[in-house]
Amino acid sequence: MVTSTSRRMAAVALVSAALVTGGATSSYAAQNTGAGTSGAQATTTERQGSDKGLAARWASCTAQVNNPHWSKKGKSVIFKTRVTCAGNIARVHVKVTGKLYRKSGSKWKAVAGSSETKVKATNGSVSTYYTPKPSGKKVTLDGTYKGQITVQITSPFPGTKGKASSKAVKVNTPGK
pLDDT digit of tens for each residue in the chain (176 aa)? Predict the structure, then answer.
């Protein structure tokens, strides 16, 4: 699933307050297939312009959710989220909140989570967010897992939240 969201912010010269002048738009696309990655992406966009016709300042970040897998180094089931940003604002703060789910019977149960904010340059460089964090809870059971994330530009102006999920995949662990 690809989710695009945007928020327009109007800035008045010499005034520190910002006014919301636009709304959010969303578009969806089909999920890709492939080992190790899902086609799930979430995009969050922020735009800030002036009501006097000045060029708009903007940033857009895209998060690619990889499928859960066994990490030999981390000794846990994990999934990664890779974030890239573009725009004419030099840096933005991007918050990614992730949850790792394990299927139990017919229900999905959250078994680990993470929440992390990083300062990202808008030059197309890739940052990786891990769920669970390397220092977090270890998930060591065989099973069917999926990852879900929300991503949001939190600063210099908040953007709307984008959401994405990985595919549900069977993960075999080496045991305890």
Answer: 443 333 332 222 111 112 122 222 222 222 222 334 444 566 666 666 555 555 688 999 999 999 999 999 999 999 999 999 999 999 999 999 999 999 999 999 999 999 999 999 999 999 999 999 999 999 999 999 999 999 999 999 899 899 999 999 999 998 65
Backbone angles phi and psi of 163, in degrees to 5: -130, 150
Range of the domain at 13: 2-171
Instruction: Quote the number of domains for the chain.
Output: 1
- What pTM value is reported for the model? 0.72
Which among 55, 48, 49, 61 is positioned nearest to 5, based on CA atoms?
61
